[in-house]
Amino acid sequence: MTRVLLVDDQDLVRQGLRLILEMGGLEVVGEAGDGRAGVEAAVGLRPDVVLMDLHMPVMDGVAATAEITARTSARVLALTTFDLDRHVVDVLRAGAVGFLLKDVTADGLLDAVRRAAAGEPVVSPAVLARMMGHFSATPPVPPVPPHGYDELSEREREVLAMIGAGMSNAEIAEALVISMSTVKTHVRHVFAKLDLRDRAQAVVAAHDAGLRGPERPGPT
Fold first, then answer.
1. What is the CATH number of domain 130-208?
2. Which of 24, 167, 169, 171 lies in disulfide reach of 162, CB 3.0 to 4.6 Å?
3. Does domain 3-122 have CATH number 3.40.50.2300?
4. How far apart are CA 118 and CA 121, in angstroms?
5. pLDDT tens for each residue of 98-148
């Protein structure tokens, strides 16, 4: 059974999350009302998934996520009220596997927690699109390439830029005129060298490095 830790400074939010998760057959192993208490609970309880609020006293969700992912194998899902919350990008950098809006449906919450526990990223294509739109409007000045960036080959940097532009493996293969298996190999190398968990973190890494992928056509 998937074991979940709830970290949120609002009692009613935690109660609602607990009810949904337990009715869905998941085990809530503990709760915490601030980031510092959340870190201590995660280290002591070793949950599979942590549902982490971003805005809390004592220690915020971003700092707590960074500490939890460094000290445990728990996968962190951030909780926020606004999908363009600037802290969303920070929490992905800190190691979260994705984030959920607090108005998520019960089925959506259960699905996201199960996917996170299974090692899958939990950031929807629509959210990635909004992230990329936000990045396009706020380029890094100056770029700050992520750790391991110097180890990437020119082709791997090109692939990273295309991931940052929201392109799928199939689209990358078509653009570069290479096979899908070759694209997957490049993606695997990029993820390994930059210590990335998923494409959401790759989008952030591409932005931090100042990479620009090809412009994608808009809807017709």
1. 1.10.10.10
2. 167
3. yes
4. 9
5. 888 888 899 999 999 998 998 777 776 666 666 666 666 666 667 788 889
